[in-house]
Write a structure and sequence with these properties.
By secondary structure, the protein is of the alpha/beta class. It contains 8 helices and 5 strands.
Length: 194
């Protein structure tokens, strides 16, 4: 777990002075879950945790190596256990892998112990961002546009059940971070009022 480097940003809405649950970033690869999550954690004065990094640490292998040696089912089982452990930790910002929210048990745990934020991105944004990194097991030796389009069709209806949806677009990441902060503040205000 990365400790917060500073106290919460002084310009936060009053309702975000104390976030009651872990903020869980969900979405497809390339949506910006780690980049936005890390910046969000700084603004909120919370630790940031990348679930994929924790899985690699626990397994002693990269995600690409886990997929190659053991397959996706094995990886998903380990992912489920690591996320369950992380959701038991004190409040933080948690970035999850693109398939994590698809698991019903993980989704239930996130609903109980966290606030889910779907970073929704269109295909062009995802293609540009995923092209920058060659370590995406689901894109290995396949047409990225075809794979991502198929994943969008399968996963977007499930991601849409997240507590918050924020569009992740090209441009300064701070703009997306501010959208997440505004949406979080609105959600917490509604829950506080009810």
């Amino acid at each position: 777990m990365t400790l917060p480097s500073a106290p919460p940003s002084p310009d936060l809405p009053a309702g975000l002075a104390r976030v009651p649950k872990t903020v869980v970033m969900v979405g497809l690869m390339g949506a910006g879950k780690s980049a936005i999550g890390r910046r969000l954690a700084q603004r909120l004065g919370l630790p940031f945790v990348d679930a994929d990094a924790e899985i690699e640490r626990a397994a002693g292998e990269t995600i690409e190596e886990i997929f190659a040696a053991h397959g996706e089912d094995y990886f998903r089982d380990g992912e489920r256990r690591v996320i369950a452990r992380l959701l038991a930790d004190p409040v933080h910002v948690l970035s999850t892998g693109g398939g994590a929210f698809m698991d019903p048990d993980t989704r239930r745990l996130i609903a109980e112990r966290g606030i889910s934020v779907w970073l929704r991105a269109d295909i062009d944004v995802l293609l540009r961002r995923t092209a920058r990194r060659g370590n995406r097991p689901l894109l290995k030796d396949k047409d990225p546009a075809e794979v991502l389009t198929g994943l969008m069709a399968l996963r977007y209806p499930v991601y849409a059940t997240a507590d918050i949806t924020v569009d992740s677009t090209d441009g300064p990441p701070e703009v997306t971070v501010q959208r997440v902060i505004d949406a979080l503040a609105q959600l917490l205000e509604r829950k506080h009022a009810s």
